[in-house]
Amino acid sequence: MTTKPLHGRARRHTADRHTNGWSVQSEEWLVVEQALELQVDGTVIATTMCTPDDPKSLAIGFCVAEGLLAPEVVADVEIVATEPVLRVSVSTGHLPGSVTARLGTVSASCGACGTADMAALINGVTNVPCTPPPVGELVAALATQLRAQQEVFALTGGSHAAAAITLDGRVVEVAEDVGRHNAVDKVVGRLHARQLLPASEYVLVLSGRASFEMVQKACAAGFGTLVAVSAPSSLAVDAAQRAGLRLIGFARDDRYTTYVEPNHHRST
Question: What pLDDT does 118 receive?
Answer without folding.
Answer: 52
